[in-house]
Amino acid sequence: MSLGELQARLGVKIEPELLELALTHTSFSYENGNQPSNERLEFLGDSVLGFVVSAHITQTFTDLSEGELSRLKNAVVSAKALAPIAEALGLGEYLRLGVGEERTGGRTKPNLLADVFEAILGAIYVSKGIDAATEFVRSQVFPLLADPAALLSASEPKTKLQELAAKLGLDAPSYTVTHDGPDHDRIFTASLMLQGRVFVGAARSKRDAETEAALAALAKLS
Predict the structure, then answer these.
(1) Which domain holds residue 184?
(2) Whose CB among 46, 82, 165, 217 lies 3.0–4.6 Å from 114's, allowing a Cys bridge?
(3) Nearest to residue 168, comparing CAs of 220, 208, 212?
(4) What is this structure's pTM?
(5) Strand residues in the chain grouped as ranges (E)
(6) The domain that contains 214 carries what CATH number?
């Protein structure tokens, strides 16, 4: 898999050394003499993404309050939203990972995929400037805003479920979480109790497991 192929997928030509740095996870850096990782580019990309998205939704959704704009922005820049974009671009295939991260499925972990997307965006900004970075966000991220209500519902299912339960006069949802497996490969299972029914979600973090359970409950109630 060549970096040239990735350049074509991205639609932006980035200096090969800079692109390689954007793809270098800290686990690879640590196992290879503490060479530079993509953390600084990720930090920069996160800031660029937040600015571009904030400017766009403020200008586009003029009827939303400040609080609603904040919730929408947070939904768009969340790992849950960015990971599928990174996956569609094939960024996981190009990640430079350490042995341990490779063994535990790092190429498909949502947080790692979201982080490398932000690092790539940071690299685009450094290489081509804010206009190219904005265009990249416009083409890859803005389509998520076609249905802001659905985006908010998917990004905050626990809140949405709590609000819906209250609206329907139901008791507040309650969660019980258990886990299984070694520390480096732990799976969490959340059992959500609502009106005598149990909805179950499983994921690699407590929060994501509860989210999956809430999504299952929302699908049934809807």
Answers:
(1) 158-221
(2) 82
(3) 220
(4) 0.74
(5) 174-180, 187-194, 197-203
(6) 3.30.160.20
